[in-house]
C-alpha cells in the first residue's frame, strides 16, 4: 500500500455549507411552487417544486460522495465523482425523456424549476465559499 496523505484536521468544512444550502433550497421550493401555482395551477406548482428538489438532491448527493471519498481516500475521489455524475445525469436524462413524451401540463415548470435550482444553488455555493467560509 502506498503512503496515504494525512487526513485534514477538520474535514467537516467540506459539508459545512449543506445546512445553509438546504434551507435556501427549501425556500426556493416554496417560491417555485407558489410561482408555478400562480402561473399554471397545481400541476405547474408540483413541476416547479420537483425541479428544484431534483437539483437539491443531486447536488447534495455529489457533495456528500465527494467529501466522503476525499476524507477516506483521496485516490477514490475521481472515480466516485465520475460515477456519481454518470448516475445523476443518467437518471435526470430518463426523467426528462419521460417527461417530454407525456402530456403533463407541469413539464415546462419542471424544466424551469431545474434551471432555477441550478442557478440558485450554484450562486449560493460560490457565495458561501468565497465570502462566508473560504477553504483553508
From TrEMBL:
**Domain of life the protein comes from:** Bacteria
* Keywords per UniProt: Membrane, Transmembrane, Transmembrane helix
Where are its TM segments located? 20-39, 46-69, 75-98, 110-130
Kindly provide the name given to this protein in its UniProt entry.
ATP synthase protein I
Amino acid at each position: 500500500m502506498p503512503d496515504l496523505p494525512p487526513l485534514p484536521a477538520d474535514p467537516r468544512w467540506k459539508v459545512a455549507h449543506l445546512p445553509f444550502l438546504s434551507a435556501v433550497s427549501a425556500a426556493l421550493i416554496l417560491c417555485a411552487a407558489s410561482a408555478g401555482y400562480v402561473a399554471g395551477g397545481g400541476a405547474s406548482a408540483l413541476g416547479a417544486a420537483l425541479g428544484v428538489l431534483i437539483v437539491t438532491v443531486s447536488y447534495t448527493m455529489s457533495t456528500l460522495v465527494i467529501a466522503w471519498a476525499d476524507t477516506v481516500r483521496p485516490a477514490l475521489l475521481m472515480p466516485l465523482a465520475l460515477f456519481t455524475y454518470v448516475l445523476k445525469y443518467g437518471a435526470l436524462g430518463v426523467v426528462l425523456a419521460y417527461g417530454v413524451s407525456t402530456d403533463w401540463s407541469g413539464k415546462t415548470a419542471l424544466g424551469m424549476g431545474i434551471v432555477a435550482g441550478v442557478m440558485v444553488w450554484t450562486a449560493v455555493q460560490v457565495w458561501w465559499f468565497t465570502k462566508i467560509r473560504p477553504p483553508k
